[in-house]
């Protein structure tokens, strides 16, 4: 019987080894001969999962364009049979799940192709995964004895296929490395972003995109110990791997530093053996919390970025600046080698990885590295904004509770940037460092990251109270919740007696969603232009009024108004009279009628694809409001009279006759919204009052300052030129913007707003227009890096303004209120610009 069993087992094992195919065998071409479309990648991993007993696929969702999102999991047969226990044991180490772990297996997650046109990554993923799971590779079996390998071969399949399909149409039959050949000139918007043209590698903490949101749910099911994110950089660069560059966030633990060094030296040895060039400790830092290396770091893992020179331009092969042809074959082998190094070091250090991971979560709340230990958010001013912020905390598994009635507290007031005394109420929220997600909570709430080096790869300030526009305090001491948070269920509006008017608030993004839905239903909606009082309740300017008058022909009017309010969880007030106690009666001509505008966004060559994507996503996925897309190079032939609003993303694409055409359209009654770089297209132009400077003296002073910087660069050491250059740049500096709350652009915003300044542009106050949002003095600066030469220029500058041209207007947004779709407080600016200004 034993001989028969052994024979059957041998046949099964041999059968499995015959069944599996390498990527080359399965796809029918050698790695590097072409780019593989996503459906074939899926088919290959399904092939491995169906023929190997130690490989599983987990489908965690789908992309916007309905391509499958999945990971492949591999380990030893005994680990695979015990996979669920390994997963739960690991969550026990974090405290996210109660219990004591009984297993000690390292979890290594490797993510590829989060940027679609960095397409070498998926090809390398197939090669690396095959080498690890190949039954004929005894090394692979050893690697998997004490680790679970999770591979996401393509985190951005929509961008990947956008690039692959384009490149396969343009590629020459013979290798053509000429950089000017069309196959190396990827058109707008490129394959880097996802469907909505947002950068998924800057979305981790915010989870605004479908791909990120679905992936993070799976991430939190596993909480890996190592997370390696594979990228490409410019073709003239060799290869980058950890250790990371400075600044490294102060919350990164000593072991996380050490393991990056361990990995770096192991990978360097492999590259040295092959005489391949590389660099470490440069350019790619560990600060901004929404990257594929930093977010895992703040969740206890060893996060690492891998960058091979090449990217979308390189294609199958292209000449670099040194005259060498960088081929796809070379790029695949280099990334494959870096991947095998990650598998090796995980196997060799498995026990220590799990031990240090446990230690991270045991000691993170008592770490002396962070200054602030507790954060209080006031609940009385903007409950809907607070609710949106708590939703983000839930997505990140950050816990919070009710603060209770307490007095005599002291902490940093985010709004003023100064220490202040305050008290709390039963409804206020407290988030502290004494929880499993301690480090991530501290990072997301810290008023400002401490910079050990001011040359950074991204923004330097992102504190959630500014993101959501809520009053908050940061405390250096522990403050525990008195009670677990228990959200009050929304009490749906009831359809009762039919009132003359439904009254809805206007101070959060969901109120804009409600307005968009009402207008899309063909309803006439009015807005109060000033504060009023009725039924002993005071309502601010911007309050929505949905009146029976004007909507009498809407079928099921009351039902639709109430159902939509319930959908967005908005509590309605009602009135049976248009006569108010204070303010303007509802029939006054000062009560604006908000008509449904026909909107177009300009896209295409010359526009920022990222800013365009933020706007497109806002209309389609947040407002759910119809919008047309006009290509910039088609504007000359477009009939602009069909649109009420043109949204102009950052960029430089209006000139000559096209500029004149848009200007004429504005004067005829159109409304243009210019964002960030697009504002400059109207500056110092004849017929416009927008200017960088109030006077020639101001202009000369600015030019002198710039000249001084240039001169200093000439006399400073050459190696300091980059450091000198940042003196005129901004990297996410937060300024308090003074608002005029009586003006339509600011309805629902209050009298101040905290802008995220990512550019060095400044404009003088408008002489002929409305200065709706200004930076009056340098006292308005709060946190984040801004160069010492640029900062003084920000005083007495306009950030948001409206200039009237004929019967129309142009709205200037010097700073982008839609930044990466996560700067929630700015979205009401855009809604006011679209629906309210000019009505």
Automatic annotation (TrEMBL):
Domain Peptidase M14, chain residue ranges per copy: 42-209
InterPro entries xref list: Class_I_gatase-like, Peptidase_M14
Cofactor: Zn(2+)
Stored SUPFAM superfamilies: Class I glutamine amidotransferase-like, Zn-dependent exopeptidases
Domain of life assignment: Bacteria
Alphabetized UniProt keyword annotations: Hydrolase, Metalloprotease, Protease, Zinc
Pfam families documented for this protein: Peptidase_M14
PANTHER family for this protein: PROTEASE FAMILY M14 CARBOXYPEPTIDASE A,B (PTHR11705), SLL0236 PROTEIN (PTHR11705:SF143)
Family named by the database record: Belongs to the peptidase M14 family.
Protein name per its UniProtKB record: M14 family metallopeptidase
Organism: Belliella filtrata
